[in-house]
Amino acid sequence: MTLPSAPTAPAQARKARAGAVTARRRVVGLVVCLVVLLVAVVASVAVGSRAVSLPDIVAGVFSPDPDDIAQVAVHQRLPRTLLGLLVGAALGLAGGVMQGLTRNPLADPGLLGVNAGASFFVVLALSFLGVGSLSSAVWFAFVGAAVTSAGVWAVGSLGRAGATPLKLALAGAATAAAFTSLTTLVLLSQREVLEVFRFWQVGSVGGASFSEILTVLPFLAVGAFLAVALAGGLTNLALGDDVATALGQRTGLTRVAGGVAVVLLCGTAVAVAGPIGFVGLTMPHLARLFTGPDYRWILPYAAALGAALLVLADVLGRVVADGEIEVGVMTALLGAPFFVAVVRRTRLREL
């Protein structure tokens, strides 16, 4: 029996240089993402029915003059921009966590039915329980997201092979279709709720207020903290359950905590902005182009890219038509061709 020889000094040096290049590329890429995010934020507060200058933006943020129309416009756009940042980051994080937990490149809050389940429970609360406030609706969104996540995982786990990516995708698609049909059935008999739901369903951050943001901020913060704390565990899970267990990973606990993070992030995002698709699906894939398979880098990238995409989509929705196109429509228009391009360029694989 021949034992493997120890790495030679030149081989170790090459490995060290490759690691340094990878680390430098990840840091530079993250800085570029943050710059893009900053540009998106400035565009969001500057572009609208009335374009404003950079001095007006600064004054409108820190000490708006109520007699200056430009500064008042900036001040009114701030909640919308902030909500877009939070929802985009939440969906990017949730998509990354779901893909890590399931090792499924198609895992996404929309495709796995989590958004549809949260929407259905919110509609039930609006229709039959008289719920009208965001602080109450968000709890029903949590229940819907949790029930759907558990149901999809249970159905996808049936059989000897367990929860394979294909079975989870099929279970999620079937669940999303079922909840969408049930939501439509309820709305057909509730005309007054239908009028409210019609705009919320397409996904929107218009009409946001600081009070709404303060209501949902604690849930998003806890969900984001859990997601980032699980990043190392998700990287181990990507190697397979047996290897992760051998490395000391408690796979069951990681999946439960990851599920809680997804419920908090998706439930809150759906409750406050509606079921917005493609952000959670596409942003983790774009992040991997820069980071590789390490979730300690994928998750921060996905959060920054998701926030930038949602804010830029909202800005484009204000300027491409005479009226306003809701951000949920714009993310679908931008996300679908981007996802096709990523698939053609990188060939999706099991995670």
From TrEMBL:
UniProt topology in membrane: Multi-pass membrane protein
InterPro entries linked to this entry: ABC_BtuC-like, ABC_transptr_permease_BtuC
GO biological process: siderophore-iron import into cell
Major location category of this protein: membrane
Ranges annotated as spanning the membrane: 27-47, 81-98, 110-131, 137-156, 168-188, 216-239, 260-283, 295-313, 325-343
Gene Ontology MF term list: transmembrane transporter activity
Pfam assignment, any one: FecCD
Keywords: Cell membrane, Membrane, Transmembrane, Transmembrane helix, Transport
Keyword Hydrolase carried by entry: no
CC per GO annotation: plasma membrane
Places the protein is found: Cell membrane
Family assignment from sequence similarity: Belongs to the binding-protein-dependent transport system permease family. FecCD subfamily.
Name under which the protein is recorded: Iron complex transport system permease protein
Species of provenance: Mumia flava
